[in-house]
Amino acid sequence: MNAPRLGLRENAAQFTLLVAVNALVGGMLGQERTVVPLLAEQTFGLTGFSAALSFIVVFGVAKAATNVVAGALADRHGRRPVLLAGWVVAVPVPLLLLLWAPSWTWVLVANALLGISQGLTWSTTVIMKIDLVGPSRRGLAMGLNEAAGYAAVAVTASLTGWLAQEHGLRPVPFLVGLAYAALGLGASALLVRETRGHARAEQAAAPPTAHLDGREVLLRTTLRDPALSSASQAGLVNNLNDGLAWGLFPVLFTSAGLSLGRTGLLVAAYPAVWGLGQLVTGALSDRRGRRPFVVGGMLLQAVALAGIAMGDGFVAWLLASLLLGAGTAMVYPTLLAVVGDVAAPSWRARAVGVYRLWRDLGFALGALLGGLLADLAGVPVAIGVVGALTALSGLLAAVRLPETRPTLPLIRC
């Protein structure tokens, strides 16, 4: 039996299918971006920001922990079973919980399930695309993957904002999520094929590498390896500001008198540029290197957050949101490509899981920090403080992150 062939062209059909599946994964997240922060305030009467943002904390912790499990399971049992399990968990989120949730506790349970589902499905689509394309096109592969996911977040956030304005916050907006879950489960069960053989083929063609247990992968990705640990800290801070944006931006915009429709457009603008921009930035990082995109993207996000904190009105917030999306587009696929560059195929899925553990804990930390600061000093101050942390993260990456693109010399400690 011939070994699987690596490459984007050689695996175009399966790769394209996985891009479409990840768009559905992103849509499951997008159903919440506009509506749930407003449900907390308008339906369940939560007045404190810390309480209102608790759903993001639950989501972030559940997703972060599941990423690690997903990576280990994908190495042990294959990628496809993990993907299927994630879609099974996703089905009840819009159907049983968010659609008719009688109390805020139900919303928290729904977000725990959503986090578990996202950890299983999104992690697996990332791993499968890295498996298929081989070492030369990782940036492009991650750009396409993340572009599909976050473009779907943006489209769904805008769509559900419009549906909420026309039909109310519940139940109509969440019917979109139900359709996504059905399509994702069906496509994954009937059409997606296993890709672990591609990773094994890449490993067989590479120089021998030492076997690493889970503890060593955790330590390398978190602390010991300068590239992997730099990616982990930058990913955490990136999602810290995204957790803040998810929870506080809709409240900031509606409290300034913007309609639900215009709020939905603003909430969608940031992930739209983020998603579509990755079609360019991921591929460029294959040519120009990873480091400039990580450092520059983090600093651009910091400038954008300062603009949102100091802005006033639809136009100013729209411009700042577009900048925030551009900065995030520079960072997001590039950090995943860094992990793919450095981790050997035999432990790459686990390294992706650990990286995504730290990255997605940023959701929880952003919601916690943003909620506490907003309660104490107001939403603009919360956004400004997170912007300053984002700038510090970019400076730390400038000092510590080596270039990892395979065609450039590796700087390793």
UniProtKB/TrEMBL annotation:
Keywords of this entry: Cell membrane, Membrane, Transmembrane, Transmembrane helix, Transport
Membrane topology, from the record: Multi-pass membrane protein
Keyword Transport in annotation: yes
Annotated Major facilitator superfamily (MFS) profile domain residues: 15-405
Coiled-coil positions: none
InterPro entries, per the entry: MFS, MFS_dom, MFS_trans_sf, MFS_Transporters
Top-level division of the source organism's lineage: Bacteria
Compartmental location: Cell membrane
First-listed, main subcellular location of the protein, grouped into a coarse class: membrane
Transmembrane segment boundaries: 12-29, 49-70, 82-100, 106-127, 147-165, 171-192, 293-311, 317-344, 356-374
PANTHER family assigned: INTEGRAL MEMBRANE TRANSPORT PROTEIN, RESISTANCE PROTEIN MDTM, PUTATIVE-RELATED-RELATED
Protein name: MFS family permease
Organism: Nocardioides marmoribigeumensis
